[in-house]
């Protein structure tokens, strides 16, 4: 979000299915954030299978959370890809790579803490331009 961020949520183990997504992400983060933002809130996800389950759809509808229409397989548009890239580069730059799950968790949390808020804000503010560019090229690849 502009000017702020939530903590990085790391799932302990197992696959992220619709129920886990609802209980660990939508209810504790998205629902509360939507409540603070009001009617202007528009939720964006990336069409991952757990995001499109009946449970997720029903929860979003019951909370009156509007979801942004999102084309399938459109990483060019999604700012989260830049976040993952930043974290990946931080991990790759470490002198000693993490070798345990605990070390990986700590390295990801450190990387997230080191991410400049300005980077996040710039990515969010670029969405209008990204969408316009995508429309101009009729859904073809756009440079990030």
From TrEMBL:
Protein name stated in the entry: Transposable element Tc1 transposase
Name of one Pfam family that matches: DDE_3
Domain Tc1-like transposase DDE positions: 43-94
One annotated GO molecular function: nucleic acid binding
Organism of origin: Trichonephila clavipes
């Amino acid at each position: 979000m502009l000017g702020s961020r939530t903590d990085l949520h790391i799932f302990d183990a197992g696959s992220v299915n619709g129920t886990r997504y609802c209980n660990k992400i939508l209810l504790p983060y998205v629902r509360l954030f939507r409540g603070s933002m009001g009617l202007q809130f528009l939720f964006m996800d990336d069409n991952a299978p757990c995001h499109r389950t009946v449970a997720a759809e029903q929860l979003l509808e019951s909370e009156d959370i509007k979801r942004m229409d999102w084309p399938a397989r459109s990483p060019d548009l999604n700012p989260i890809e830049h976040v993952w890239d930043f974290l990946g580069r931080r991990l790759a730059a470490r002198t000693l790579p993490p070798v345990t799950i605990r070390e990986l968790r700590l390295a990801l949390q450190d990387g997230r803490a080191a991410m400049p808020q300005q980077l996040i804000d710039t990515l969010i503010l670029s969405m209008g331009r990204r969408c316009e560019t995508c429309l101009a090229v009729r859904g073809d690849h756009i440079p990030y």
